[in-house]
Amino acid sequence: MHSGSEAPGSLHALSRAALALPILAIPVEAGAAEIGEMGFTILGYKERGLMKVVEPVLWGKARIGETWEVQANVALDIVSGASPEGVSNISGTPVQLVSAASVTDRRYLGDVRVSRRMGELTLGISRSFSEENDYRSHAYGIEARWDLNERNTTLAFGYGQSADSIGSTLEPTLDERRDTREYLFGVTQVLSRFDLVQSTVTVARGRGWFNDPYKFTRTFYPDGAPAFLFDLRPSSRDSFAWLTRYRRHVPGADGTLQAEYRYYSDDWDVRAHTLEVAWQQSLGERWAVRPALRYHTQGAARFYSPVVPRPAPAELSSDPRLAAFGGISTSVRGILKLDGGLLIELTVGNVHNTRDFRAGGNGSPTYPTLQAWYGILGISRPF
Amino acid sequence: MALHGFNFRAMAAEHELQLHCEDAGLARAAAVRAMEEVARIEAKYSRYRPETLVSRINAAAGGDFVAIDAETEGLLDYADASWRQSAGLFDATSGVLRRAWRFDVERVPTEAELAPLLALIGWDRVERSPGRVRLASPGMELDFGGFGKEYAVDRAALALREGGIGSAVVSLAGDVVVLGPQPDGAPWRVGIRHPRREGAVVATLPIASGALATSGDYERFIEVDGERHCHILDPRTGRSARGFQSVSVLAPTCLVAGSATTIAMLKGRDAGLAWLRGLGLDHLCVLDDGSVVSSFARG
């Protein structure tokens, strides 16, 4: 660069004029710019004696050069107390049962995502895996983000494909596959200096084995032999999900409103609405607190039934996740920023799902009320 | 060593001092000197107050010479050096453009509105002789906005040093001087504001000492037909700078750091980056597409 030979002269001339004034010249000493981050998160989950999950996650994110970015996550799930479960009417009305067999399982998860910015376009590819002794999943995805309007508008397009292998410790010969293709389209719009809205539509088409090998339904009849059915679900599932998020920073209150609404529907006739509202309040330089309230309501899958009718249908599941119910979750997160960029976040939350919370009533009568506490501890720091 | 923090308001913005000092009384005394120094500079060079020296020079434009002191001469020498080194882009008489650019209404001035103002711009028509200054034409204006705040940061840092403080940060609305590392030797961590996300930082710099200035297109701007027009205006065209969302530069003085950021913004993306590389000063720029260019070594 030819101007390079002239510019040190510029610095000299400016410095000489500046230092003719009664001010200090302070020797410059600075370290590397911190643009990447890495962190460690532990998620603990306890569900009223039913299941306990501990999920330590290690993640990192780094910018390489001016245009590349790499993100990676590695996680280990430890699930204890997970048990085969089913619904039986042995005591008269159908109730959720947990069989005596108890499983402790480990699940390994990892994903890596590489993206490259080329002006207004950012292209990314991702690869992920998840593995436990009876389940394996591999997925890849490609995505593009297009910034418009001085980055005030961002369009996102994504495609993902996953291949899952399903086995069972109860049935060692089980070896089934499921393939899912996912398409995503999203828009992020900066509305003003203080608020932005993001809306994303995801359409997924799944083909293959959807049965849960650990779920069963057992029904006794006043007359005749009892029926026992393993989970029997359709061999395809097409779903549509629409998530809209809104964030608004309120400078006067030094807080941020975070609201989101998600609509979900699939061709199993499950329809769900989820609304979450949170407020993140800064308390001085170091502390922030974020209370959140979440409401979820869903309708049952068309083949959901807690009892096996006679004659037995071709499709039937008593899995409570496919029932009609509603849930309210509350959580509080404390955020502490320490010197060195260390960020500590602790979230404590409660989940309460019951048939009575379903919007408009009509919750599935046999839906087992679930009450659980969870805690998430996250630590991250720049490097 | 205890850390003492002081917040104060001057030049229509919020400022902050943080300093390490054993004695709370000494800390307070040094901070008060620094804050008084900022207030003194504002009272002398603000263009918004009719009684200031700058207002008197502007009121006399096209008329008589106005007597100035050594400090003002030094600042005008600095404005002259900036004008020369930027080949006329940094012009202390370009403040008249504010008459057409009102950033509280979303309207872009027309050529017809800008033309008479451009005719009033020209550092080469600031007549100076020792101890006095005169603006050649009526309507011309001197504006210390491009370097007055930076000078105030440098002066506040000196006031703290003279008050016996060795470890401090002076922050005047985004312009920062780090006087020395923290008592345990650790650098201060200075966050650079994200130009598009309120309340977020785009990068964090560990600075043990030095002056960091940032210019951005987010301080005062309007958006018309999807195009952003910011308050950094080109004295040749009267139009807003393009190509950067923000430019931060680290230098031994805030004055030099500040002129380097403004000149880079005015030069535009490619010429601006070349200018910064040529200066040899560490910089971190957010380009108009949002990508970050940084010369600060990566760890």
- CATH homologous superfamily identity of the largest domain in chain B: ApbE-like domains
Helix content of chain B: 25-40%
Instruction: Report the mean per-residue pLDDT of chain B as an integer.
Output: 90
How far apart the termini of chain A lie comes to 32 Å
- Bulk shape of chain B: globular
Number of domains of chain B: 3
Specify which chain pair forms the largest interface: A-B, 53 and 68 residues
Quaternary structure classification: heterodimer
- State the total count of DSSP E strands of chain A: 21
Helix/strand class of chain A = mainly beta
CATH names the topology of the largest domain in chain B as T-fold
Q: Describe the biggest sheet of chain A? A: 16 strands, antiparallel, barrel
What is the strand arrangement across the widest sheet of chain A? 2-3-4-7-8-9-10-11-12-15-16-17-18-19-20-21
State the helix count of chain A. Answer: 1
What does the model show?
The complex is a heterodimer of chains A (383) and B (299). Chain A is 4% helix and 61% strand. With 383 residues, chain A is mainly beta. In chain A, the strands form two sheets. In chain A, strands 2-3-4-7-8-9-10-11-12-15-16-17-18-19-20-21 form a 16-stranded antiparallel β-barrel. In chain A, strands 6-5-13-14 form a four-stranded mixed beta sheet, with no helix packed on it. In chain A, strand 11 and strand 12 form a beta hairpin. The N terminus of chain A is likely disordered. Chain B starts with a strand and ends in a 5-residue tail after the last strand. The longest helix of chain B has 22 residues. Chain B is built from seven helices and 14 strands. The radius of gyration of chain B is 19 Å and the shape is globular. In chain B, the strands form three sheets. In chain B, strands 1, 2, 6, 7, 8, 9, 12, 13 and 14 form a nine-stranded antiparallel beta sheet that branches. In chain B, strands 3-5-4 form a three-stranded antiparallel beta sheet, with helices on one face. Strand 1 of chain A pairs antiparallel with strand 9 of chain B, so a sheet runs across the interface.
